[in-house]
Specification:
The structure holds three protein chains of three kinds.
Chain A lengths: L17 H30 L7 H4 L3 H26 L3 H31 L11 H16 L1 H21 L4 H33 L30 H11 L1 H4 L11 H31 L9 H27 L1
Chain B lengths: L2 H19 L2 H20 L6 H23 L8 H25 L13 H14 L7 H5 L4
Helix pairs in contact in B: 2-3
Chain C lengths: L5 H7 L14 H6 L4 H31 L23 H37 L7 H9 L1 H13 L28 H31 L12 H32 L24 H18 L2 H15 L6 H15 L14 H29 L8 H24 L1 H7 L3 H31 L5 H27 L19 H31 L63
Helix pairs in contact in C: 3-4, 3-5, 3-17, 4-7, 4-8, 4-15, 5-7, 6-7, 7-8, 8-9, 8-10, 8-11, 10-13, 10-15, 11-12, 12-13, 13-15, 13-16, 15-16, 16-17
Classes of the chains: A mainly alpha, B mainly alpha, C mainly alpha.
């Protein structure tokens, strides 16, 4: 311990505002946060025996990713000009730049939403992708069964009957309940033949007497999976069966499709959605910051310089994450 | 430690404006070029080895990131504290996937379904596979199977 | 990070005008949603002390089952909720008990009592700042703890009290990731994970705040190497927290999505659990263990380093001697933190991890013994030849050092892979971490409570009661936990509701009963602390600014310090450990006391 005599200087520490230092430290924690996701993605992908890279399967649109990169870079530039504007006391310009950034952020989210929409419509969602033909068969049966709504109808009927029993025990009025039960019974009776068809299909699946067939509409199969469109003559395929069901009962099954087999697709979807999802959340947080700044209107002034700078730093970080996500998800 | 640089920087921010504002558009152009390059690398199907392609696009991404950090985030003009905060973070962030990779990405064991893969089954399977297709890319485990 | 120029200071000072505008604010703003670091610290302290009692009660439940298996619990067994299982501890309930004991103690007691309570209270006072850098963020970090407590509470009750989260505090998948894996703990486990996320957010806000404050808000003259060890401990802890915790938060989100979102980060394909459908996926359960311990091993140091710092301060004050080897202490603390990032794998030696990694982690773990030993020797060196005053804080601080030696040494056993293969998941490891977490950290905390209580409330705690509390706790602690080493070497596994199913463990029952009696003694001794604490808060004898004749800046402020802390900005002329200095006629020399330079003898 030194015995330094004489009077020390007044200010200790770094010559940057606390808020800026705090923001940089926060960004450090954010780096580690995304490291966990990106690192997990890298090691899981390397550790997985395979990975779906076919854009037709995964609906990864490289153009959308590239455009989004472009959009984010533009917004980075606009936000840096906003800071310049505040520093040069050109607040009108700064506000315009902030609005431009906000618009670009909306654009980013819009393109992101378009990509997500593609994945949702093709059921490329974690936990919903069959990784083998057998799974695809089971999934189809599950979806068909759910589409009939038989289980809910039966459950409802049972509950009503139980209520009836309870009410009869007390000796209350049961007329309205009985009419409800009759109606519900009709519903169940209506569904039952349809659901029986599904059950028949199911028994075929369990007996192994039905093949998947080619879900066709979307082209080739995932690599590594032997496609079974060579189904022998006379052998039934699930694709045909579902098509038939579509024709017979469009009111029930219109939304049911035979899902496409994507090997290792669930792991792919899991990592894809967690990385892009949390990035999108950060985009939204950044937009909230910009909305707060724009909301200041003409009150935006030099006292907000640190705020603008910190929002900018945060926004650049969001951009940085995307700069790495783009090659890792879209290109590699 | 940082007396010289950081004190000066903070006071001089006003003077910095002129030559700080200048390169933004140039940086912007550079970033765009980089993005197009990495997109092209994928789209053109250059038939490069995939490891090389990955290396290229990651290098491009790193270059882009450096430019964003140096100029947009003004790190070029900051004091030495930037190294104290960012270098350890960068080291940690890089080291973690590497450390995990040695266990999660490289298997000395089998990742396949535990219940369907008793040791006996696996040996039988391995023999069958050896007959069928020897160097199928989807069977990375095969080469490690011997270590059991 | 040294001194900036005075001009910079001028440019800077408009950012926080410390003493302006402290109007009378209402009770709510002053004591509930307060932004004053001292109030927040005390809020943290009281909350965590209450949680300490909750965690202790859970531990006593565990001890009851191990000593008197399948016998009705005393008192609580008569409660209605336990009638379904006949008042005994069912295996599921036992699993939940130890899970929640660990969770409450780690996430709601030790981490917040060190960083939250003492970090908040001491950092601005010891570095001579008027408050934290971000007071509002500070308030939020306290109030983000309550959603976590609420979620933990919900996870207790959502499936009935006997079916809480039961995957252990480590929450390993697939047990934790599959809702079907642990029947009854379905939504409970989900809420548990949510709570951990809230804790993560709270700690992240706290740590960014601490780092900024320590770097940027030190009083004039408070160079880095004039900071008390407490501040160094808090600083390094904040760094660890800031860079390790986000990984756990991220992993928590992943396992949460595995439970409710259909993802498969940690779920392998085709796993059949409890006759449910085979799982769909391709993830790897080991990944969680890596991510979890990447945080949770540094967390072990998060739970220790601040206590190390506070104990260093206490030891110096009551040995009336400068700290032996100040800079080596700082460096070894940093070394512990740095090495702490690369040793996480020693928790996974038996997990099926790559053996090459096991070797690496064994070596790095052994290396941590070096800086730890440096610290231990320096503490003993500080005591050596000192004018020791055995006050309550001093007794607790000495207990810290001795218990840390025991806990540290048993750690080296487990660092070796071959030894660990035998004692992994036995009571030996339970003994080890209780010696470190309770024996070291909690005794350090007890010492710190008694030491800084006068500064918090301007009144003294009763020394006699304090000593009774110390001795009873110390005896109860060693009776409980030293015995665990023997159980562990005898091969008794942890987390087993009824070890006596196995004949080779039957003879351990009397030892377990002895431990339970000790644990009950220890548990009830804590009421002395609580009683002393709350009684002295209102009726303790008043004290001046510096009742211990200590050097730190905090003793320069009034007790309790007003909002804004110091009347004038303190100026620091030396380090905090100048006790018995020849330059002063007192046996202490406060950091703020200016001694005019005199020509040194040639």
């Amino acid at each position: 311990m030194s015995h330094q005599h004489g009077h020390p200087p007044l200010k200790m520490g770094l010559a940057i505002p606390n808020a800026k230092l705090g923001m940089w430290l926060f960004l450090g924690t954010e780096i580690m946060f995304f490291t966990a996701f990106i690192g997990s993605y890298i090691v899981l992908r390397l550790g997985s025996p395979g990975w779906p890279t076919n854009a037709e399967d995964t609906h990864i649109v490289i153009y959308a990713g590239a455009i989004n990169t472009f959009v984010l870079i533009c917004s980075s530039v606009s936000v840096v000009y906003a800071l310049e504007g505040v520093r040069n006391k050109n607040f009108d310009f700064a506000r315009k730049m902030l609005i431009l950034t906000l618009v670009l952020a909306c654009g980013f989210l819009g393109i992101k939403a378009y990509e997500y929409y593609g994945k949702f419509t093709h059921d490329i969602l974690p936990g919903r992708i069959p990784e083998s033909n057998q799974q695809a068969l089971h999934f189809t049966i599950r979806d068909l069964k759910a589409a009939t709504g038989i289980e809910e109808a039966q459950y409802k009927l049972k509950t009503l009957q139980k209520q009836l029993g309870e009410r009869q025990a007390v000796g209350g009025n049961t007329e309205s309940l009985q009419s409800q039960i009759e109606e519900q019974q009709k519903v169940v009776d209506e569904i039952t033949p349809v659901s029986n068809k599904v059950d028949q299909l199911n028994s075929l699946v369990t007996a192994g007497k039905i093949k998947l067939g080619d879900p066709g509409a979307h082209g080739a199969h995932a690599e590594g999976e032997q496609p079974e469109h060579s189904a022998a003559e006379g052998e039934q395929t699930m694709v045909d069966a579902v098509a038939k069901l579509h024709e017979e009962h469009p009111e029930y099954f219109a939304s049911v499709h035979v899902p496409k087999v994507i090997r290792y697709g669930n792991l792919f979807a899991s990592t894809y959605f967690i990385m892009t999802g949390f990035h999108a959340l950060h985009v939204i947080v950044g937009m909230i910051l910009f909305v707060m700044l724009i909301g200041l209107g003409s009150k935006l002034g030099s006292q907000h310089e640190t705020f603008v700078e910190n929002s900018g730093l945060y926004w650049h970080f969001v951009d940085l994450v995307w700069i790495f996500l783009f090659p890792l998800i879209y290109i590699v | 430690m940082f007396r010289r640089k950081c004190g000066a920087t903070y006071l001089m921010t006003d003077e910095h404006h002129d030559h700080q504002a200048a390169p933004y558009m140039a940086i912007f152009g550079l970033l765009i070029v980089c993005t197009i390059l990495s997109a092209l690398a994928d789209v053109l199907e250059l038939n490069l080895p995939s490891a090389f392609l990955i290396f290229i696009v990651l290098v491009i991404a790193t270059i882009k990131a450096m430019f964003v950090m140096m100029f947009f985030m003004h790190l070029k003009f900051e004091g030495k504290w930037k190294y104290v905060i960012l270098l350890p973070t960068a080291v940690l962030a890089l080291a973690m996937p590497f450390a995990l990779a040695s266990d999660i990405a490289v298997h000395y064991y089998d990742v396949a379904v535990p219940q369907e893969n008793t040791l006996l089954d696996k040996e039988v399977l391995a023999e069958e596979q050896a007959d069928d297709h020897q160097s199928h890319d989807g069977h990375k485990n095969g080469e490690h199977g011997g270590s059991h | 990070m040294s001194i900036a120029t005075p001009e910079t200071a001028g440019a800077h000072s408009h950012e926080h005008d410390p003493h302006g505008g402290h109007h009378d604010i209402g009770f709510i703003r002053k004591y509930v949603f307060s932004t004053d670091h001292k109030i927040i610290g005390i809020q943290f302290l009281i909350t965590t002390l209450l949680m300490l009692m909750v965690g202790g009660a859970l531990a006593l439940g565990v001890r009851w089952q191990l000593a008197f298996p399948w016998q009705a619990m005393p008192f609580v067994g008569h409660l209605h909720v336990f009638q379904g299982q006949g008042g005994i501890i069912s295996p599921e309930f036992y699993t939940m008990l130890f899970t929640m004991h660990a969770t409450v103690m780690i996430f709601l007691v030790i981490i917040p009592i060190l960083a939250g309570a003492f970090g908040n209270f001491l950092i601005p006072l010891q570095i001579g700042a008027d408050d934290m850098a971000f007071p509002t963020l500070n308030m939020l970090s306290y109030w983000f703890m309550w959603p976590a407590i609420a979620c933990f509470g919900i996870s207790f009750f959502i499936g009935g009290i006997t079916a809480g989260p039961a995957a252990g505090w480590t929450s390993y998948p697939v047990l934790a990731a599959l809702a079907t894996a642990a029947p009854g703990s379905g939504p409970a486990q989900t809420f548990w994970l949510l709570a951990v996320t809230f804790i993560g957010v709270s700690s992240m806000m706290g740590s960014v705040n601490y780092m900024t404050t320590i770097i940027n808000m030190r009083a004039p003259g408070m160079t880095l190497f004039r900071m008390p060890m407490t501040i160094w401990g808090m600083f390094i802890t904040a760094i660890l927290q800031a860079f390790a915790l986000p990984v756990l938060t991220a992993a928590g989100f992943m396992v949460l999505l595995d439970r409710i979102g259909g993802t498969c980060f940690f779920i392998p394909a085709g796993l059949v659990v409890n006759n449910a459908d085979p799982t769909i996926g391709g993830g790897q359960p080991l990944l969680w263990q890596h991510l979890f311990w990447f945080y949770s091993h540094p967390a072990v140091y998060i739970m220790l380093l601040p206590a190390m710092g506070m104990v260093s301060d206490i030891l110096c004050t009551f040995a009336r001697k400068p700290l032996f080897g100040y800079k080596p202490m700082v460096y070894s603390m940093s070394a512990i933190a740095g090495l702490g990032f690369i040793v996480w794998g020693h928790h996974m030696f038996t997990s099926g991890m790559n053996p090459a990694l096991g070797m690496t982690f064994m070596v790095s773990t052994m290396m941590i013994a070096l800086p730890s030993a440096v610290k231990t020797f320096n503490w003993i060196g500080t005591l050596w030849g000192g004018n020791l005053q055995f006050t309550t804080p001093m007794l607790n601080a000495i207990a810290f050092v001795s218990m840390f030696i025991v806990g540290g040494l048993s750690g080296i056993f487990m660092a070796a892979v071959p030894v660990d293969l035998y004692i992994h998941d036995t009571y030996f490891i339970v003994a080890h971490f209780h010696y470190v977490l309770f024996g070291a950290t909690l005794f350090g905390v007890f010492g710190a409570i008694h030491f800084w209580f006068p500064k918090m409330f301007g009144r003294m705690m009763n020394d006699t009661v304090g000593k009774w509390h110390f001795f009873l706790t110390f005896i109860g602690f060693n009776g409980t936990f030293f015995t665990m080493h023997l159980l562990g070497v005898a091969g008794m596994p942890r987390r087993l509701a009824d070890p006596y199913n196995y004949p080779y463990l039957e003879h351990l029952l009397p030892m377990n009963q002895f431990m339970t009696y000790s644990a009950i003694l220890m548990g009830f001794a804590q009421f002395l602390l609580l009683g002393n604490f709350f009684f002295s808060m209102f009726w303790g004898p008043k004290c001046g600014r510096n009742p211990w004749h200590a050097n730190g800046l905090e003793w320069d402020a009034p007790s309790p310090p007003p909002h804004g802390n110091f009347e004038t900005v303190p100026v620091v002329y030396r380090g905090p450990y100048e006790y018995s200095s020849p330059e002063s006629d007192k046996d202490y020399l406060p950091q703020t006391e200016y001694i005019a330079p005199h020509p040194s003898p040639a």
